[in-house]
Amino acid sequence: MTIRNKERQQQDYTYGSTQPVVVGGEYAEAEPLVGIDDNDFAEPVFRDVFWALLFVAHLGVMVFLGVAYGSFGTSSNHEKTTQDWKAEMEAEMDDDEAIHQVEAFAEQVEAYVEVYPMRILTYILVPCVLLAFVFSFVGTAVVIPSCPTTIVQFSLLGSVGLTIALTVLMSVSTGSWFAWLMSAGLIAIVIYYVKIVWNLIPFASVNLKISLKGVSANWGVYMIAFLSSILGFVWTIFWAYVSIGVLGHEQLESGTEYSSTSTSETVDDDDDDAYYESQGDQAQQGFTIFLLLVSLYWTSTVILNTIQVTVAGVMGTYCFDKQDADRCCSPAVVSSLYRSMTYSFGSIAFGSLVQALVTALRVLVENARAQRQSNQGNQECAAFLLCILDCIISLLEDIVEYFNQWAYVFVGIYGYSYLESGKKVVELFRARGWTSIITNSLIGYVLAFSMFTIAIVTGLTALVIDAMVTKGHTLGNDELSYIFGPLPGHGYYAFFLGLIIGIAVSSVMINVVKGAVNCLIVCFADAPAKLEDNHPHDCRELAETW
User: Fold this and answer.
1) DSSP per residue over 47-82, as a string?
2) Nearest to 197 by CA among 443, 26, 22
3) Fewest CB atoms less than 10 Å from the CB: which of 174, 359, 386, 501?
């Protein structure tokens, strides 16, 4: 929600002057924690337009490259049919028995592909996706809100217990006194952390409960998140199609140029010229790979951040104007999505580009490190420098990602530009200190535990489906799975596939909840009185646990 309407102007306090804040469970007049300018009452305007146009132009370039060069294989490496593959294998073999085995294997593969993928889709993929959604929705709408404090405590202690168990196991496996000493220090730090954050569990629990109520009431935002995830998957396939074609075309061009240069005329420095030309080709290809990586991560991050801004808008409306956020496809859901894709899209593209550039650099550095490690030469100094650079870029990536998730809350609620939102994030942490970070991390334990539980339940469900369908179609013969065919250990395949589906589906919903929690923290820090007007009981709980 962008707080720019007339109802917002009719509040009994004015942003930018003084407003109520919580003091010992009561409200008192003080300076606003996150300052809002009077200009924020104006009509929505397009923010960071240049970056939106740049993103659209980038998509246009990718479409052009896809039409011109896109391919899933270069012209010199066409996809081989099964008959071509069999012919090549038979040409390389002299043993008739081996040839017969290859032909039998190829026939089995063809028969398997004709029947079982459709069964896997029908009996496992579709039911598990629907069930994972139901499990996630029931968990976030019913189970967690019913006892949030207990679940937060259990998730925190479970995570600590798992950390201690893994640390002890690692120490036992190494058998080193130094490892035991390090483990003891780590366990002490973990216990101290639990002691510090334990008093913040009630506040985090109330935050989580209110956020889940808001998202569950406007559960259409879940559908937007799922559709966006599908769009991201389609984009990844298209990106691979473009990248393979472009890189294959560049390799073909560089190979042709190199051969013509090396055979044109014989002079003393032909080898040097060919070497420098090949180095130039490698540099050009490296730059192309970097640009393609930026394109991949930029578009994927834009899709994810559009969801976050939409969630912030929906949750902001729920906090400040709940009448417009009380059903699946409420006005809050529709208008928030519209603003995310229009007025605030430039801000989304700007922040996503920053994050994409850092991620692309990290991938290139990691690739360079892997190449150095595989190199047998003496290049310890270069490997050490790359290791340091990798650590720095990874840390920078985490900072940018964490900063963006808060900045987009302000983009979604108030429609700020990306840089303005960044200033508000600094003000938020200056006002709330570490409370926002710790609250966010505590809720992260719950969401991770929920995702793990949903994944396990979905995997077990897939295992039961495979057993029941197989029993019904094969009269109790479990040697051959009706869904997975003659694959040995088909139960493991069913469980693993269900587990992956559970993680994928629940992670989409969990990210929506995380965005809602961040939005609620900002709304409570910015306008607790307005929040109390719409949710008096919930806001009182926040005040009492703060």
Assistant:
1) -SHHHHHHHHHHHHHHHHHHHHH--SS-TTSPPPPH
2) 443
3) 174
The residue assigned the tokens 């949903």 is 454
- Print burial letters for 352-372: b (CB count within 10 Å at least 16), e (below 16): bbbbbbbbbbbbbbeebbeeb
CA distance 522 to 316: 9
- Closest C-alpha among 252, 378, 222, 391 to residue 314: 222
Cβ atoms of 148 and 216 within 8 Å: the answer is no
CA–CA distance, 424 with 410 (Å, rounded to integer):
7
> Of 379, 259, 317, whose CA–CA distance to 4 is shortest?
317
DSSP single-letter state for residue 45: -
Q: Would the pLDDT of 239 be above 90?
A: yes
**Where is 29: in which H helix or E strand?**
strand 26-30
- pTM assigned to the model: 0.79
Phi, psi dihedrals of residue 28, rounded to the nearest 5°: -140, 155
**Which ranges of 16-147 does DSSP label H, i.e. alpha helix?**
49-69, 82-92, 96-120, 126-138, 144-146
Q: Identify which of 74, 51, 55, 52 has the alpha carbon closest to the alpha carbon of residue 63.
A: 55
Mean pLDDT of 464-493: 78
Greatest Cα pair distance, the chain, in angstroms, is 91
Paired strand residues for 23:
26
pLDDT at 456 over 70: yes
pLDDT in tens, 336-382: 999 999 999 999 999 999 999 999 999 888 888 777 776 655 566 77
- Residues 244, 259: Cα–Cα separation, whole Å: 22
The three-state secondary structure class of 417 is: coil
In this predicted structure, what is the pLDDT of residue 270? 52
Mean pLDDT confidence for 392-407: 88
d(CA 211, CA 93): 65
Extract the tokens encoding 405. Answer: 């998730």
